[in-house]
Specification:
Helices cover about 80% and strands about 0% of the residues. It is mostly helical. It has one domain.
Length: about 200
């Protein structure tokens, strides 16, 4: 068996719910570090936790977008994990928002004010709101209820949500930093690749 076959064989033995367990444990561990102000959480634990949750969410969005290209170009089949990756990404986005709303600004009126006043918060909030229907419908019952075609159409919100998430991160940081630029570049590239495949199939 080749290397790709061995990897795919190993992936088949890993249950998809492992993603949820690892995500929950990681989120809890970061929260504990912030609560006890350990390591790099010592100086400004709320701000560091808020950014950590947001960055993990963005990394998971990218991981979800990579599933199809990895199968198409490398033969690696992560399809069984895509739903879990997406739901866990939403979980971290929600955690990111809750830290912002409860621990950072600590007021619903301030949440509204910051969303209106600061463009990076506006696009971040738009991304979060787009992800809510995706998370709600990420189960087999909703696929049957909506119908496969409508469900697929709804889940195209993944693309603008990811782009806005990347833009939120880029806009958030101060000064020139390569990491958010790379994140946004990768997201835009993956979404463009997906759109190209969709158009090619439509023409064919």
């Amino acid at each position: 068996m080749d290397v790709v076959g061995q990897i795919n064989g190993g992936l088949r033995r890993i249950p998809a719910w492992t993603i949820y367990i690892v995500g929950a444990l990681w989120a809890g561990w970061l929260f504990w570090l912030a609560l006890t102000q350990q390591g790099h959480f010592r100086a400004d634990p709320v701000n560091v936790l808020e950014r950590a949750y947001g960055e993990i969410a963005l990394q998971l969005m990218i991981a979800g977008l990579l599933v199809t290209p990895l199968r198409k170009f490398a033969g690696l089949n992560f399809m069984k994990f895509r739903r879990a990756i997406g739901v866990t990404a939403f979980f971290f986005v929600l955690a990111h928002f809750l830290v912002f709303a409860i621990l950072d600004v600590a007021s619903l009126s301030r949440v509204v004010e910051e969303t209106i006043k600061r463009p990076y918060v506006t696009v971040g909030m738009a991304s979060f709101l787009m992800m809510i229907p995706l998370a709600i419908t990420s189960n087999n019952r909703m696929v049957k209820r909506l119908g496969a075609a409508s469900w697929r159409q709804l889940h195209k919100l993944t693309y603008p949500a990811a782009i806005l998430g990347g833009l939120h991160y880029l806009w958030l940081v101060k000064g020139f930093q390569i990491e958010p630029i790379l994140y946004l570049g990768v997201i835009v590239g993956l979404v463009a690749l997906r759109m190209n495949w969709t158009q090619s199939r439509a023409v064919a």
